[in-house]
Fold this protein.
Amino acid sequence: MIYRIYYDNKKRKFATRVKNREELILLRNAQQNLDYLDRVRKGDQTAKPHLLQLAYNMGHVEGALAGCKSIGSYFFHDVDCYDEEHSKQTKELILEKKDEIGLRMLERSASGGWHLVCERRRGTTILENQVRVATVLKVEMDTGAKDLQRVAFSTSGSDDDLPYLDDCLFTEPMSAEECEAEYELLRERQRRGEEDVPAGAKKANKHYRPWEEAAEKPHPGPPLKERESMEKGRLCMVCAGAPKHYGYGCTGECLGTGCKEPGLQASPLHLSLGLLGFYIYYHALKYFSNSRLRSVLSLMMRRSSARCCSFCDPGIHSFMYPAAEYFCCM
């Protein structure tokens, strides 16, 4: 949806929904907004903060924006242009590929670039969608312009400044509960590092070109032999989930005696390395004086003992055997 952003006398940010096309055009063509726009385009940047401010990323919100946790079905994307010719070519390209990128609104920015509002794919973050659009159009993007409450300084309602507008933007297809659940889902994906974007998209860059950087491919999962074992039920659920959640290949040879799937025997090499790791951590707990380190090591040991196998702890593996191929019960 489209929200008009305003501030109280304490500079706190508030939002109110723009209900339809007519209301949006009236706001954009308000004489005060046109006057400030004229000043900005003549080089007076002090007038820019006084332009009409609109937001597009949020789902359901009314009133104060502080603590908003509702993501909507659309997202804002800013494209800079370097001159009038570049701006014209970019506009033609965007409209040509509007169906491919899910374009719902296109407006010329005060500086001559373009503001896009596109449909966000469910289950994916704003950044993932911005990378997708930038890759399709081969246009630079600002990796920092992905926050939920991102505000755009808007221009007029003329055909030159607003060449494309889909009325679907004035409604939100998801319910308030769905928007909040989607927000929490995407936060968890970000926390786990599961966003499907190139590594460079996570770094501050106002002129990022995602198509020039190969996207990190997801882990292919366990080898064919192990996939067949999973299908036959040979692996316990913890082992079967390890490749998906941690990106490690599972061998099906669970270390220790507490595995949920009886009958799987550890190889002598696996068991020896596991015992060695246990021995080192035991003495580290005994002799290290740093209380924080002791607490971390204790937590790791408690986690490992509560899982499938006594020695299969991701913390121990990543510290002791970072290049090993035999990661098993995570």
Remarks:
- The beta strands are 3-7, 13-17, 53-55, 63-64, 74-79, 103-108, 114-119, 151-153, 164-165.
